[in-house]
Amino acid sequence: MIRFESVTKRYADGTVAVDGLDLEVPGGGITVLVGPSGCGKTTSLRMINRMVEPSSGRILIHDRDVADRPPAQLRRSIGYVIQHAGLFPHRTVLANVMTVPRLLGWDRGRARAAAMESLEKVGLTADQARRYPTQLSGGQQQRVGVARALASGPEVVLMDEPFSAVDPIVRAELQDEVRRLQRELGITVVLVTHDIDEALSLGDMVAVMRQGGHLAQFAHPAELLAEPADDFVATFVGRDRGYRALGFVDVAVTPSPVLTARLGESVPAGTGWVLAVDEVGAPIGWADATGWGGPLTDSRLHRLGTLAPAGASARTLLDAVLSSPSRRGVVVEDGRVVGTVGADEVLRALGTLR
Ligand SMILES: Nc1ncnc2c1ncn2[C@@H]1O[C@H](COP(=O)(O)OP(=O)(O)OP(=O)(O)O)[C@@H](O)[C@H]1O
C-alpha cells in the first residue's frame, strides 16, 4: 500500500541516511521501522509525507507517486505524531485537534465535531478539550497528539517515537490504545522506534534497519525472533528470543478442572491447593490445604499468579504456571476460572509443534 522503490536519501553534507530502500508496507496494519540511532528511520518516515525529499527512487501510496502531490495537501491527508506531541502551547487542546480539519477547509462546526469525536476516541473528555496542553500530563498530551493525527480521518498515520517520552505504564496504555484504534479504524500506521520490544509487541510487520540506511530484515515479529536474517538482526532482537518467540505460539492445551472454594466455605484437610474464587467465579487467591482443614479465610490466601486468558500464547500460559504458587497456571474466560494448566502440559504441546 505504501511502496518504497529503491529510495535513497543523501543529505546536502553527503550523509547517506537511506540507501536503496525497497519496502512494501501493507495497508491496514502497523508496520514498525526499528533500528539503532542514526540508521535512517526518521528520514524514511518523513519521505512518505514529503517532509524530506528522496534523492532518488520513489514512494507510492496506493500506486500513486507522492512526488506528484503538492506537499501541503499530501501532509494534510496523512496523520503525523511525534515524540513530545508537538502541540501548539498557546492553543487549547480542542483548537489543536481542529487544526488539520480547518486547514482542509471544513467549517468550524464540522471541524469541532470531528475534533471532539477524535478526542473521545483516545479517551479524553470535553473538560480536557478546553484546557491548554501544559495543563495535561505528558501521556495525555501524547493522546492529544494521536487525536490530532486522526481528526480528519486519514488512511495513513505516521508516528515517530510517539511513546518514548512517557513512563513505562503510560507507554503500555498508549500502545494498547494505538493497537485498538488501528484495528477499529482500519488505518495504516507506520511507526518508528529504537525499542525492539515495542516493535515486536506493536508491529504486524517489522522492518529492522541498520547503519547506513539499509534494510536488514522485513518480517513478522515471530519470524524475526525465530529466524533472524543475520547476526546483526539476531543481536539487535536481543536475548531470550527463544522464550520471547513463545509469545507468538498458540498451543492446544485443555485446562483441567480445579478445586475451587469461596471464602467461608469449609475445605477438608489434605485437599492440597485450592483456588479461592469470588461470587462470580473470578479467582482471588490460592490456599494450600495440605496441612490444615476448615473454613477458607482471607489470611490463608497466597497471591495469585498471572492469569492466562483462554487461547493465550505458550508464553502467557507458561508465565501463569511459573508465577503461580501452586505451579498450576489459572486459565480464565471473561474473568472466570475455566481450569488450570501445568508446565509439563504446555511443554508437551510445544514439543508436538513443528
Ligand atoms: N538534515 C540532515 N542533514 C544531514 N544529515 C542528516 C540530517 N538529518 C539526519 N541526518 C543524518 O542521517 C542519518 C539518519 O538520520 P535519521 O534521523 O533518519 O536516523 P534515525 O534512525 O531516525 O535516528 P534516531 O533514532 O537517532 O532518531 C544520521 O546519520 C543523521 O545524522
TrEMBL record:
Domain ABC transporter: 2-237
InterPro entries assigned: AAA+_ATPase (IPR003593), ABC_transporter-like_ATP-bd (IPR003439), ABC_transporter-like_CS (IPR017871), P-loop_NTPase (IPR027417)
Keyword ATP-binding in record: yes
This protein's UniProt keywords: ATP-binding, Nucleotide-binding, Transport
A GO term, aspect molecular function: ATP binding
PANTHER family linked to this entry: OSMOPROTECTANT IMPORT ATP-BINDING PROTEIN OSMV
Family assignment from sequence similarity: Belongs to the ABC transporter superfamily.
Name of this chain's protein: Proline/glycine betaine ABC transporter ATP-binding protein
